[in-house]
Design a protein that fits this description.
The chain has 368 residues and is an alpha/beta fold. It has two domains: 142 residues, Rossmann fold (3-Layer(aba) Sandwich); 160 residues, 3-Layer(aba) Sandwich (Rossmann fold), CATH 3.40.50.720. Strands 1, 2, 3, 4, 5 and 6 form a six-stranded mixed beta sheet that branches. Strands 9-8-7-10-11-12 form a six-stranded parallel beta sheet, sandwiched between helices. Strand 1 and strand 2 form a beta hairpin. It is globular.
């Protein structure tokens, strides 16, 4: 466990801090992972999920927090990367006491970590967490917050998909293309709306029949696949994984290649199941838009809340995902490397250069 925290055998140097949180009275069990504060306080959401084991919860926290460092760096934010996971079934275990206990642990970090929504947590939950800490974003508009960050997450993924279409087919549109969306929950159903409006033929799948029915009610023209395997085999131009991580396995990439899929661009975090998948995608001629680049619209939205939220300002920032995605594709082609590696290098360059500014001594504030 400690070797994973300290980054033994990895190139990124491991994590700065990992906090194990246990409140006996409420039953809270949580992990807060701070990967990097090179650019500023670590911002990242809180995932509430029934992990089979505590080991898997820790691994998810480590992976997700590292991804947040890279996401925030590429988004141009002065924020580092962190993530928290609460172990439990949100439908049964989430209550005021658990959320407020969690908020007190966030407060104990004194601003090194700023939390927000993620899988299993919602705007209303962040309002409860905020009763114990000021280091929380993604709050409801009634409390001065940004509201549902899924809106700009989906918008950003759509911008990344438009850029991918531009790079692959010469035009920044999905009109006439067949797009498969796996997972139509908080983000996926908004993404479907953008795609339908743009003129794409959309096919969806989700383990939740309720989620599928909601999409079908809003967009009756959308097709439904029985499961992800059926979706992958259905002849997609674009595949959008929008559920949990690890979606791009060796088997998945093989199925995409066999079906002639041209682009992978989706909202899920940590899509690459293991190192090397990005090379397999490139070798099969599948253009991969790095997940932490295209799904950064949500963190752009909640980060804007720190300044005093303005939706138009946040949306304008999220629109830049289109340009950054094109830049990544250009760098990847020039260097002969997969886009995922090009994105890593650009994010690491910014973290390295900005953190080096700490060598410039600032005068201490005058004491009263």
């Amino acid at each position: 466990m400690l070797s994973r925290v300290f980054g033994a055998g990895t190139e990124d140097g491991g994590h700065e801090q990992v906090v194990l949180c246990h409140d006996r009275s409420s039953g809270l069990k949580a992990i807060i992972a701070i990967h990097s504060t090179a650019l500023g306080p670590a911002l990242g959401g809180t995932r509430f999920f029934p992990y089979p084991t505590e080991e898997e919860a820790l691994q998810d926290a480590l992976n997700l927090s590292r991804g947040m460092s890279y996401k925030n760096a590429l988004a141009g934010l002065d924020l580092g990367g962190g993530k928290a996971v609460i172990i439990g079934d949100p439908a049964q275990d989430k209550n005021e006491a658990v959320l407020r206990a969690y908020g007190r642990f966030v407060e104990s970090l004194r601003g090194r970590y700023v939390t927000a929504c993620d899988v299993g947590t919602y705007v209303q939950d962040m309002d409860v967490v905020a009763r114990e800490t000021s280091f929380v974003t993604g709050r409801s508009p009634e409390h001065g917050g940004a509201g549902d960050s899924s809106i700009l997450t989906a918008f950003g993924v759509f911008q990344g998909m438009r850029a991918s279409a531009r790079a692959r087919w010469g035009q920044p549109t999905l009109r006439g293309k067949r797009v498969g969306v796996a997972g139509v929950g908080k983000v996926g159903h908004y993404l479907v709306g953008h795609l339908v409006e743009d003129g794409a033929t959309v096919v969806v799948t989700d383990v939740s029949e309720t989620a599928v029915n909601r999409v079908r009610a809003a967009h009756p023209e959308v097709g439904v696949a029985a499961d992800t395997a059926a979706l992958l085999a259905s002849g997609l131009d674009v595949y959008a994984p929008c559920a949990l991580g690890g979606a791009l396995t060796d088997e998945t990439v093989g199925a995409l290649g066999a079906a002639g899929t041209a682009i992978v661009c989706g909202a899920a975090n940590n899509q690459l199941a293991h190192p090397g998948v990005e090379k397999d995608l490139a070798e099969r001629g599948i253009l991969y838009a790095p997940d932490y680049l295209v799904n950064s619209g949500g963190v752009i939205q909640v980060a804007d809340e720190i300044e005093g939220f303005d939706f138009d300002r946040a949306k304008k920032k999220a629109t830049r995902i289109f340009d950054t995605t094109l830049e990544i594709f250009t760098r990847a082609a020039a260097d002969g490397i997969p886009p995922a590696l090009a994105a890593d290098r650009l994010a690491e360059k910014r973290m390295r250069e900005i953190s080096a500014l700490r060598s410039v001594l600032l005068p201490a504030a005058r004491r009263s």
